[in-house]
Write a structure and sequence with these properties.
This protein is an alpha+beta fold. It is built from eleven helices and nine strands.
């Protein structure tokens, strides 16, 4: 059975009642248990205590450009702060393991929806800080699966919550407060979108340094929120280490990400990523950002037949170094900026290559070429023909959703098109950060 079939089997079991769907009172118990766990985090083992609350500095492109030059620390005892104006997992250096979980919300009413978000917040606060799980009551199921051992180490875990357009239908009366640009992802001309891995009311992005941390967080959230949401689809993902140095590669063998906004520059992030007060957007959205997920299968059997020099002209970069095409040394820096002013006809860097269409470096395209990429690779089961299903979980954040859609419209003419198939994902709004222990995800929307 494939990964996708397993996911749907889980959904069917949840839907027919044979798997436990936690009622509202259990969601509340999860909230209280989560709050107790956060308290427990204040008495963590000495190996974890020094990491709690540690702040760490953070480090035009497209579906293959995610541009962080630094991976998160491999130290499992380190934590990324959970509370703040913005959610972690956006401007944070990408970790090596990830999972994208899309949910259909099943809460019966607005009050249960609020309970759901409070529970999500409490669990995320505990899991990202680390600590000793609460002890199970006699004759009760265990409070933690102990996948991570007796103590939950934070492992740079981030839990990032985003909302889909479908959450703003008539169920909860949220329509008037919908983010102004949020919409359901439409298919571009070369897409083959599968509804089974597309869209959702709610997206939870989990990232950490190790797969078991991500898996533990997923199981914990599913255990505590079963009465409020049901898994629609999931995509496990990862980032390769740099080979040999610099920026990691993708399945096609090219450096996966070169340019990005400077996430340590608050002014640049406020201009390109974070929604600001006093705009046509609802007031509660300030501090949030639009998130795009695109699940892109790479047709590697076809790609492997293309000579390397042609591959380089399709991407617009050197394969060995990752540098622009004007740099011929195999040790050239992968952070060199392509320059098109002396190549207006595309004789060196083709006009329809990947990086040039993503960011043509013209005054007319400047406003639609700056996105914050934070992408990963995926490896799923063989397709029915026995061909490996390998590809890219493209993830980006931007202040204006139109920035991405305009860029992607340009990319429909790229010469990479025959070698990729976008298959799913969605558009979401990543909510502002949780300000303190009294706050919760999307509180401005639900208050």
């Amino acid at each position: 059975m494939s990964d996708q079939q397993l996911d749907h089997a889980d959904d069917r079991r949840a839907g027919d009642g044979s798997a436990r769907l936690v009622p509202r009172r259990s969601v509340l118990r999860g909230l209280l248990g989560g709050a107790a766990a956060v308290v427990a985090a204040n008495s963590v083992t000495p190996g974890v205590a020094h990491a709690l609350g540690t702040n760490r500095p953070t480090g035009g492109g497209s579906d293959y450009e995610d541009g962080f030059n630094t991976l998160a620390s491999e130290d499992s005892t380190r934590s990324i702060p959970f509370y703040g104006e913005h959610q972690a997992g956006i401007g944070t250096p990408p970790q090596t393991a990830a999972a994208f979980l899309a949910f259909d919300v099943t809460a019966a009413n607005r009050a249960e929806l609020t309970d759901l978000f409070r529970t999500l917040t409490a669990r995320a606060a505990f899991l990202t800080a680390g600590g000793t799980p609460a002890q199970a009551q006699p004759n009760q199921p265990p409070a933690d699966d102990r996948l991570l051992g007796p103590t939950v180490l934070p492992d740079d875990l981030t839990v990032t919550v985003a909302l889909g357009a479908s959450l703003f239908d008539g169920r909860y009366g949220l329509g008037p407060r919908k983010p102004a640009q949020l919409e359901t992802m439409r298919a571009f001309p070369h897409d083959a979108l599968d509804p089974a891995i597309s869209d959702g009311d709610l997206l939870v992005q989990l990232c950490a340094n190790h797969h078991d941390t991500v898996g533990h967080a997923m199981l914990d959230l599913l255990q505590h929120t079963g009465g409020g949401m049901r898994l629609r689809w999931r995509m496990e993902a990862f980032r390769f280490p740099p080979r040999p140095v610099g920026i990691p590669r993708d399945w096609m063998g090219f450096k996966d990400g070169i340019t990005n906004p400077d996430t340590s520059d608050a002014g640049q992030m406020n201009q390109e990523v974070w929604l600001q007060p006093g705009t046509p957007e609802p007031a509660w959205t300030a501090g949030g950002t639009y998130q795009v997920i695109r699940i892109i299968r790479m047709l590697l059997d076809k790609w492997s037949q293309v000579p390397v020099d042609q591959q380089e002209h399709i991407f617009g970069r050197r394969k060995l170094s990752g540098a622009p095409l004007y740099a011929t040394s195999p040790t050239a820096s992968d952070t060199l900026d392509p320059v098109y002013t002396n190549d207006p006809q595309g004789l060196l860097t083709p006009l329809n290559c990947h990086i040039r269409l993503a960011n043509p470096q013209t005054p007319q395209t400047a406003a639609t070429s700056a996105i914050l990429r934070r992408s990963f690779q995926y490896d799923r089961s063989l397709d029915p023909a026995g061909v490996p299903n390998l590809g890219h979980v493209f993830c980006c954040f931007q202040q204006q959703l139109n920035t991405y859609t305009t860029m992607q419209t340009r990319l429909e003419d790229e010469i990479l098109v025959p070698y990729i198939t976008p298959m799913g994902g969605g558009y979401f709004f990543a909510v502002p950060g949780v300000r303190n222990a009294q706050d919760y995800f999307a509180s401005g929307l639900l208050a």
